[in-house]
Amino acid sequence: MNTRKRKVLDVARSLFIEKGFNETSIMDIIHEAKISKGTFYNYFTAKNECLIAILQESREDASNRRHELIFGQDPKDINIFAKQIAVLMHINREQNLLQIFESIYHSRDVGVKKVVMRHHLQELDWLSTRLVEVYGKEISVMSYECAVQVFAMIQHTIRTLLVAEDRCVDPEAVVKMALRNIDAIIPRMLETKEVLIGVETIHYIKNSVEHIVINKNMIIKQLKGFIEGLSKSDPKSGVEYANYILAEFQQTEPKLFIIEALLTPFRKSFTKTTHASEAREIANYIWRLIKEEQPIDEN
After folding, report:
1. Per-residue pLDDT tens over the stretch 35-76
2. pTM here?
3. What contacts 8, CB < 8 A, 6 or more positions away?
4. In the chain, which end has fewer C-beta atoms inside a 10 angstrom radius, N or C?
């Protein structure tokens, strides 16, 4: 994402938080970003696309942090799992996304509701997959139902405490409570085999979630373009990490464990630069590709 587009998105985010999504117009964004109408439409065809980009960034950030948390750890470790679930809640607070969600909660705009619902379904899809990795393939048919119950317990507990006691609770504490409860519920669900979220609903969810096909050549091409866009003013360590990762990917049999070890420092080295967004995207794509190459042992 180029610098000007990044500025427009940052302005849109600030206005959505300050004024509310519905109350913010495209002209507000154009005026605050000090750009022409044509420039805005070169980047986004509608205000909704700004929201989509903001939510996409939060998902990429969450995906990277989740992969980093599990790197070198037991994927079935409940404490690690709880931290992974809590990641998006931490990001929502850090980026004030909760205020944006609140501002569009009563929106009558069907397009906006679809954007938010898709964001929710992506999270649901991720959690259902992780539940299968943690509890085994035998819960596959009920994984989405379990995911819905986990999220319901988390969200309603947090909202109740906020309304009743006007306090924000530690997300990880609430997540661990929800996982303890689902741990007790799963045996009963396996016994009864009763589920409300059936195969058709699961297919709908999966079809609603965008799955980008990632391959080695795609990564190499993006890394080359990324490196070509760097300059002497960019972090030297970041440039070195990018070149190391590219060189390893260009090998006939890349050493994935080396690439994994470099991804976190690579991403973090560009955090406060204009390349932060693309570095985050590249890291996210690579983590996903590696996971596909090295599926988690479910035994």
Report:
1. 999 999 999 999 999 999 999 889 999 999 999 999 989 999
2. 0.86
3. 29, 33, 35, 39, 40, 43, 44, 50
4. C
Here the tokens at position 298 are 């479910």
- For 43-76, letters b (16+ CB in 10 Å) and e give bbeebeebbbbbbebbbbbbbbbbbbbbeeeeee
Taking the CA of residue 279 as centre, how many other CA atoms within 13 Å lie in the half-sphere pointing to its CB?
A: 25
228: Cβ contacts below 8 Å, ≥ 6 apart: none
Residue 242 contacts residue 223 (beta carbons within 8 Å) = yes
Distance CA 39, CA 155 (A): 39
The pLDDT tens digits of the residues spanning 173-231 come to 999 999 999 999 999 999 998 889 888 888 888 887 767 788 999 999 999 999 999 99
Residue 7 has pLDDT above 90, yes or no: no
Size (the chain), residues: 299
Q: Tokens for 235?
A: 């972090």
For 186-227, the DSSP string reads HHHHHHH---SS-HHHHHHHHHHS------HHHHHHHHHHHH
Cβ–Cβ < 8 Å for 173, 158: no
Q: Is 288 exposed, middle or buried (0-12, 13-18, 19+ CB in 10 A)?
A: middle
Taking the C-alpha atoms of 156, 158, 160 and 162 in order, what is their torsion angle to the nearest 10 degrees? Answer: -150
Cα(33)–Cα(288) distance, integer angstroms: 34
State the Cα–Cα distance between residues 142 and 153, nearest whole angstrom. Answer: 17
Sole residue written with tokens 């464990």: 257
User: How far is residue 106 from each of residues 20, 95, 268, measured CA to CA in Å?
Assistant: 11, 21, 37
